[in-house]
Design a protein that fits this description.
Elements: E1 13-16, H1 26-29, E2 32-35, H2 38-42, E3 50-55, H3 69-87, E4 88-96
Parallel strand pairs: 1-2, 3-4
Length: about 100
């Protein structure tokens, strides 16, 4: 759907982590989908300012010898969830695949 087709509904714009300032103002990112490492991106947001965090970790990361895939994913997911908790609004949601 193009903006011309429905002028009343805002379109989401895509932003990449490299385009964001060190400290993000909510007005800079309204109606945006931000692509990048959530651990890097979330530390730029003020506390309790994010409505939803969607986490889709890599499924086949390079792991050190002796670690299994689930251990690596669990550690990464726990770090992301901890970081999300500081930025997430009390009524916000976390979705993980």
């Amino acid at each position: 759907m193009t903006r011309e087709m429905n002028k009343n509904k805002p379109m989401l714009r895509s932003l990449y982590a490299e385009e964001l300032p060190a400290i993000v103002s909510i007005n800079d990112i309204i109606d945006s989908m931000i692509h990048g490492d959530c651990l890097d991106i979330l530390r730029r947001f003020p506390s309790r300012s994010v409505d939803m965090v969607f986490i889709d970790p890599p499924y086949f990361p390079q792991l050190p010898r002796g670690k299994n895939l689930l251990d690596g994913m669990s550690e990464q997911l726990l770090r992301a969830l901890r970081r999300s908790g500081t930025s997430l609004d009390p009524g916000g949601s976390i979705m993980a695949l």
